[in-house]
Amino acid sequence: MPAPPVSVVGLGQLGGSLAAALAAAGRPVSGWDTDPAARDAAAARGVRITRELTGVVVLAVPLPAMATVLDGLVVDPGATVTDLGSVKGPVLASLGGQLGGRFVGGHPMCGTERSGHEAVDPGLFAGARWALCVEPGTELPRWLRVAEVALAVGAEVVPVTAAEHDAAVAAISHVPHLLAAALAAAAAEAGPLALALAAGSFRDGTRVIGSDPAFVTAMVEGNAAPTTAALDRVLAQLQRPRSELVAAGHAVVTRPAGRRPVRIPLERAALLSVGRAGGAVTRRLAAFVEGWVPDAGD
Amino acid sequence: MPAPPVSVVGLGQLGGSLAAALAAAGRPVSGWDTDPAARDAAAARGVRITRELTGVVVLAVPLPAMATVLDGLVVDPGATVTDLGSVKGPVLASLGGQLGGRFVGGHPMCGTERSGHEAVDPGLFAGARWALCVEPGTELPRWLRVAEVALAVGAEVVPVTAAEHDAAVAAISHVPHLLAAALAAAAAEAGPLALALAAGSFRDGTRVIGSDPAFVTAMVEGNAAPTTAALDRVLAQLQRPRSELVAAGHAVVTRPAGRRPVRIPLERAALLSVGRAGGAVTRRLAAFVEGWVPDAGD
């Protein structure tokens, strides 16, 4: 069976990069954006511009626009719909409610503090992890169709539930945004001398808050409860004796990164167990997928 | 008057880079390290290896070694002594007590999470800020001699008191190390899935805790009270409504960076006012120094 066509709605950094990467790989890809400049930029990269969406439909718009993004567009009734939003619970509630098992929530863990079609990079997904939701109602053949799109642009697919995803990204993305904001604002309170002496550790620790504030706010407010829980874990860590805290943090960032290959049957529980173990799917075969889990033996 | 020779004690990343940069610029530079491999590496870059220290003596050893680093070495009684330690109050109390006005505390705001002579880079100081302490007892001609060493390797010199320095670096370096450690440790608590999904914002936010834990612990414990005060400011920021916090942090990292050139008379108060305004010294002339302060007019 040939790979289905892909239709990308929203041709900014993420959507435009995905469409460009697929077009560069020779896959039929169409797209739409409300911004004519984004449409023109995508067309120049080989993306067919149309409001008629078919195959795998990828919604690559900001979270606040997600619920209404399909208004005025024509979606093939057989199409599989996925999204690239950075929070999955609210999107599942909204689009999963409208589309049922045809909707497969996703979130590629890439993107930079830049945004918009000027920031398009067809190599953006190479080596990235791409969270892809397997809910009780998810139709697995559709999940695989979306997974193949992610694999086609060089990503590794992490099977998750929306709730697992939102708790995890609170810890590794949403809280880092809040810490970066607090670090920057507190340094400004400390005064011009502090900002003048700021070097590598401050630049690294605050870089992510250079992102569009509306995007960051929508993300942390759209994932409020998991973000609060994850922030509370950080605050508890900060209560530890400093030498203990430093050693614990150092051990995490310098942990060994061994991998053990696995074959995963096409079943929801088996897929999710790979994600929970910290592993990913790297290849689809006929009756199973291949991937890896962390190797605890090294 | 020709530039005085420079003697560097400790030829790891910072000291080795300084010695190498000075040697590359044709300045007479000697050095010592207890590690024969570090001595050999420095000798290969044109550094004369000796225990006899003269001219501007630069102590580039870890904080715990600072108080006893001169034991067993021969220091010219007329030499000016400076250091590169990341906390200035304790070093001033220790070496300032031994050396009086001949000691000028310093701290170049560079270095990476790597360490040791393998991490030597003669370009390390280019464009970096270099805090240099002007205390009530500092002999200004000696301060200028050290400032010239910093300027010679491409740094900009920020005049500070030790107390001002320690408060500032708590905010922009020591607290970032603790936040990075807490972020990493809390993400590990969240589980393998969270770590598997970790991408740019987590890598940036935790990079600095890849540094040697003994070095980081000595730094934050050596600057305990200012670090606690700076951390408290971060914790207070984290209590703000999230949209407000995000906007405040974003404004700091995207602030305009205008500069206004200034001429600064060779007086303690005038030099310190430039540092407090967030400015730096960039050039020494006969009767004054040149530099810049932030331009509030843009």
TrEMBL record, chains A, B:
Prephenate/arogenate dehydrogenase domain mapped to chain residues: 4-276
Molecular function as annotated in GO: NAD+ binding; prephenate dehydrogenase (NAD+) activity; prephenate dehydrogenase (NADP+) activity
Keyword Metal-binding: no
Domain of life of the native organism: Bacteria
An annotated GO BP: tyrosine biosynthetic process
Record Pfam families: PDH_C, PDH_N
Keywords: Oxidoreductase
Cross-referenced InterPro entries: 6-PGluconate_DH-like_C_sf, NAD(P)-bd_dom_sf, PDH_C, PDH_N, Preph/Arog_dehydrog, Prephen_DH
Family, similarity comment: Belongs to the prephenate/arogenate dehydrogenase family.
Entries under PANTHER family matching the protein: PREPHENATE DEHYDROGENASE, PREPHENATE DEHYDROGENASE [NADP(+)]
Protein name: Prephenate dehydrogenase
